[in-house]
Design goal:
Elements (H helix, E strand, L loop, with lengths): L1 E6 L8 H12 L3 E8 L2 H9 L6 E6 L2 H11 L6 H5 L3 H14 L3 E5 L4 H11 L12 E6 L2 H11 L3 H22 L4 E4 L2 H8 L11 E3 L21 E5 L5 H21 L4 E5 L5 H4 L7 E5 L5 H6 L2 E4 L9 H8 L4 E3 L17 E2 L3 H13 L1 H18 L2 H24 L1
Parallel strand pairs: 1-2, 1-4, 2-3, 4-5, 5-6, 6-7, 8-9, 8-11, 9-10, 11-12, 12-13
Amino acid sequence: MNILFVVPYVPNLIRARSYNIIRKLAEHGNQVHVITLCSNDGERKSAEELKKYCRSVQFFSMPTWRSLANSLMALPTKQPLQAWYSWHPQMAKQIIASIEKEKIDLVHVEHLRGSKYALSIRSMWRDHEKTGRPCPPIVWDSVDCISYLFRQSSVQSKRRVYRLITQLELGRTEKFEAYLTRQFPVVLVTSQKDKNALLALKDATPSAAKLKVFPIGVDLDYFRPDPQQKREASTLLVSGKMSYHANVSMVVHLFERIMPHIWAKRPDVKLWIVGKDPTQEVKDMAAHPNVTVTGMVPDLRPYLQRASVAVAPLTYGAGMQFKVIESMACGTPVVATPLAVSALIGAIHDQDVLVAQQPDEFADKAIRLLDDARLRQVVGESGRCYVEQHFSWDRLVTQLEEVYHGVIENNGTALQG
């Protein structure tokens, strides 16, 4: 297949979902063309690195000021700021040019921030229909149900500014996501929970069949146990992008509500907070003598492979959690809230992963692992086995290719009819 992948942020090892989809599609023999946006030199470098997998990679500059200006332009409209945030008219024109030049079979557009491009393809293609070539089918990859995330954030976020922004965006986003479910032959989401949330929106598509769950995978060769790395005693790790509001709320909850229970019984326990762009609130936690805030690290794996236990006390969120399956892939035992593992269908609680909701219960399960080396080994090995069985990118992308073929065939049938 000749696939155009439109993504409003550069796929890389941090934005690993789109990166691994593109990489595996190419490894499976597809011709993959990527059009994306860069906001800094690091992202431009990542875009250049994508070229080793892709037939072509084109990127456009999207500085923060431009995204903010786009958001201001969205305010008088009925559309959410997220839908305008990454809009670049020249990129939209290039998408049409690439479809023509490369004879694209299917266009995959990722995220709510990319949805305006998906909508523009069909309207802009009308000017090109005189060529006699039909518009290729478009798959919109919602990733998460953003309105479901906003509904939680508007109430539960620890930061008032996030609550205010999501309260502003919630109604617009619900209406727009419902509209989007009716515009494309297939809509992808990462979890059944997000699929149900989209279907529950007023005026959403009546067809559950067109909403398909395509979960996050994990690179099992990249994230794996490393016997050369020695586990550091009494060390908990929490990971993720530390400017993301759901992660900030998670870490605040961990530090303020869970760690006091742990330190009361085990004052020696260390906490590593690992992830890029920590907010000042997160940075301030490093004032505690047992807390390390790393900020951006060149490679997450050594931290996952050296920690005694990984924790994910998520208080709100949507989709699947990379932080959980990457830890499990590294053989690191995980303690998580039910929400953090709700998308892990078939995972056996207290065997593949330890699950607890209340802060004292969560602390007790973390201490139980810290105190029992044999239990850590058993849970770590069981978690690795679980992700091997369910989240191999090779298997998942093969399933995605089947979805693509079905969309292309149905598009051709519809055109003939």
